[in-house]
Each structure stands twice: as structure tokens, then as C-alpha cells.
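Question thread 4412

I'm putting together a teaching handout and wanted feedback from people who do this every day. The idea is simple: show students a protein as raw sequence, then show them the C-alpha cells that encode its fold, then repeat with a second protein so they can compare. Below is the first pair exactly as I plan to print it.
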Amino acid sequence: MSSRSSDRLSGEDAVVELLGRIANLLAVLVTDGKTQTEAILRLAHAGYAPKEIADFLGTTSNTVRVTLSTKRAAGRSRRRPT
């Protein structure tokens, strides 16, 4: 492997790391001042996976999945005719 190829890989790693930091900053902006439920819903809507949301919020992926499931079920029950 040439040194130029090695430099490029390091540059790609730096870009990936920077993009990760930017994503985290955006997640902070989206969730700042929100309840855990609101934060979970916003991050899920933004395309984050339950594990990513859990890691970011300091909770478990199971908590995230249950919250999303509960909200989906509540949405379905509101749409049903009475």
C-alpha cells in the first residue's frame, strides 16, 4: 500500500468522524429542552435507529422501541371510527 493511499484513508476517517460529530450536534439541537418521549420521536423521524437514539439519550434501545410502539398504537386507535 502506498503512503498516498494510507493518507487518503486517514482523510476518509477524518471526514467520517466529522460527519458523526455534526450528526450529534444536530441531534442535540433537535432534542434540546424536549421530554424523552419527544426526543425519541424527533430522532426516529430524523432516521436514527433505536440503538442510536438510546445511545444518544442514555437509555436502552428497548425503552426507545416501547416508546415508538406505544405512540404508533395510540395513533392507530385515534384513527379508528367509533
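The second pair follows. I'd like the answer to focus on this one:
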Amino acid sequence: MRLKIENAFAAGYSSQERVALGRIAYGVEPDKMLEIVEKEYWVPRAEQVEVDNIVNGTTRGRYHLVIGERGTGKRALLLEAMIRVNGDGIAMLEAHNDLEVFRTRLGKAIDYEFHEDYIGGLFSIRGPRDSTPLLDIERALNQMEKVALSMRKRRHKPLLMIINNIHLFKEDDGARSLLEILQQRAEIWASNELVTVVFTSDEHWTLERLIPHATNMNVMNIKDVRKDVVVDALRRYRSRFHGQNVPQSILDQIFALVGGRLIFLNQVAKSNDMLETSRHINRREKSWFLNQCWILGDSMDDDVEEQQKFCVSLPSLFIMKQLLTSFRLPPSSSPGPSCNASRNVVTPSSSFYLKYHSTKLGRSSRAPTS
């Protein structure tokens, strides 16, 4: 059992990692490897150096929550760092809202067998201690901890476990218990430099859930790419792989339509007509946004009425945006309210607008806390 788990952390890629890496991981000729990597990871990221240090073991003693909106490139940052170390000492798996599915994925990632197919199980009765997936996950983590202790002496650096999309865990007792187990292990392993655990999430509630018990947690907030980086990378990509010299005006229009969201930029860069693809993405996202936040009137369905607290707060958010853009800010900073101020807009408190407006105009010496 221990040899299998050690093999799961050896150099190379497991089947789950091969699927995530795509063509890079299975049988690509060495002379084409660089071209594929440059095609897939063509936008330089400021966070890449920090992620590289986490993956190669330079950064130790912490576990990490990589948080950001969907499509900002969290997985791409980790995969690019994995390629540079050839998957050495890394196990990666995807979260799931079903504990049985997560248990299976964890066993596959670290090559731990739960003996589901043991024929002797047909003639035995499972006791209460053998009946829950949480206990199986705990046993698998116990075995992994023993392997990490033995490998630490040889490797002289911690192992790495990546759990993607932990926001998929349900808001129920089982998922809360699972997240608590994973965080407890991450805390202990980080303090002893045995295993570095990296969580990725698209939603902010996971941060709120982990923070009360976090001692060694580091939070990385992945944001959209800046305009100058996007324009330069897109110009170089189209010039090299499509033989096009894209005018600056076209690049400015593309950024105005899709912004610096990496998932959209990949679609635009690889399309034949970049402007038409950008307009299509813009229309699609606008339709989704209006379906989520628009006020539909008195004849709305009962299910839609549950979303009205967000719909009512939408005009307030637009008012705040106009208020903030009216102040003179440095060119490098984008106007935006603090987290606390945004929450107060969604759930307005008494005299919030007066307090915020007077604070920004300098009439109050005490700024709202974030």
C-alpha cells in the first residue's frame, strides 16, 4: 500500500493529471512540446513565480487557497508550474459534492485502495465504523501521512496535494465535516512541512468557511489580466501562430468587449474572426447577467422572486460605481468599493449611503472597515 502511494507522488503524471494537461502529458514529441506549451500558456501572469515556488517546494510552512472568479486562470497557473517540475511529488484531484465520488477520486489520486471489489465483502457485514465515506477518507489521509513522513527524509521538501474547485462541496453536514478534515490535515502538514495543500475555489464563501480556523493559510486572489499584458500577448500570439499583424485599434476593441478574463481570451485568440467571437462572448455573458439580476415585474414566477434581493441591489451598485468613478484615482488602480461596502449595498444598513458618501468626500475622519 505504501509503495503504491509513493509511486503516485513519483515524477510523471497520473491519469487525472494527464487529462488536465491534455496533449502535453501523453506522447508528444520533444520538439513539439515547447510549441504546445506556448500555445496553451501564452499570457504571462504576475502570479506565476509565486505559484512556481509553491509547486517546486521553495515556499513551505503554509497551505494555500487560490481563489478567483471562473475563468481567471487558477488551474492554468498550477498546471504550468507542474510541467516545470514534471509532476514530481504532486497529487491532484477534483472536488465533488458527493462524498462517495470524492472518496473515489482521492483514492485514485494517491493510489489508495478501499477494497470495494474485494469478493470477501459479499460474505461479511460492514460495521458502523466502516460505513461512511468520511472514515474512508480519514484512513486514506492517515496512510498518506505515513508515506509523507518517510519520503520527507529522502526528498528534503514537502509533497504537494492540489484539490480543485472546493466550492462544489454542498452546504450540508457531510461537506462541512469533509472541509474541516481537509483543513485540519492541511494545518498540521503545513506546520511540519510534510505536505503542502492547495485549494482552488471560484466562490468567496469557501474563504469565509476556512478563515475562522486558519493559522497557516495563505490566500492568493487571482484577478483578470491587465490590459497592457493582454494586448501585448494577443499581438504576439496572432503574429506567431496566425501570421497576422493585428492593429492596435482592434486589440483595444477586443479588450473592451471581453476584458482580461483568460477563459475568454483563449477563445478569442484561437478563433478566425476575433472581433465576432468577442461580440458573441459579450452577448452571451450579458444575457446571463440580465437573466440573473434583472427586475421582471409583477407577473414574475415565485422562484424568480427569491432573487429579488439581488435585483433590488443592482441599481445601488451602479450608483456606487458612478460615485467612485467621479473621484480622482491613480491610473493603476481601478475604482471599486471595499468588501464591507459591497455587502452593505446588497443588504443596506441604516444611513449607509450618507456614511460612505461623507467618508469619500473627507467629511468623516473614520473610514469604513473592509
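Top answer:
Good format. For the second protein you could add a caption like this: Residues 225-293 form a domain with the Helicase, Ruva Protein; domain 3 fold (CATH 1.10.8). The beta strands are 63-67, 90-94, 159-164, 195-201, 217-221.
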